[in-house]
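Please, structure for the following, as tokens.
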Amino acid sequence: MEREEFLKDILREVGATTLKKKIKHSTYSYDKGFLAESDIIAHDAFKKGISKNFPEDFILTEEDNIDFKSLKVSNEFLWIIDPICGTTNYLYDFPFYSHSVTILQNEVLYAAGVFDPIRSELFFSCKNGFYINNKQFTLSKNLSMKEALISINTNQSNFDEGEYSLKKIIDKLSPPICRRLRILESANLELAYVASGRIDAYFNPTDKPWDIAAAKILIPSAGGAVHIISNSDSNIFNQKGILAASSDDLLKEILKALA
């Protein structure tokens, strides 16, 4: 089986497992927020499944206890995984969380999938084309910022009061500057929604590689635009934060508002 096909299968398998065997025991840390026992179950299932089928590949998930910023990978294929994106929502039975897998080949983005187990929706791209449950979709919107529905977030776990505090982001983007703001807290699913035309833009300046990797394939494949906030020219492990929009014009308009 090709890696891109296996990616779809394992997303559905892990999604079914965490949906059926929901374990609400969790811990909370100042920097990372909630870590559920189900995060670890999903982490283990992804690593075991991928390693069994592609033992020569390197696998990184959010729950790996390593210094990913200094990580050097020589393997041809790299898998970047967010076992559960939106753990707070998952724990509170708020039906908006996802599982995300991205594959790089020789440091070049190759394929990505985001799976929403609640709605059984798989958002997928490989090389060219964006698909929702195997049906190709292309963005056709060209809205101005004042018409846009924008989803935002930042690191609320450490109550950041700096340049990218939640208050400052809201002050720069809130209506009537845009049509509506949302805080949904599942970066991968929100970014898949940008690719799907369900959200017009998404901004989080503190998102990590496992939050943004899939979007770097999904959104351009659908016809949208992506801007990495920090270290865009570096390797993916050093990149942080993302602004994504349904069109390049909208992305530029939001960047101007955030400046």
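The chain has a mean pLDDT of 93. The CA atoms of residues 123 and 192 lie 7 Å apart.
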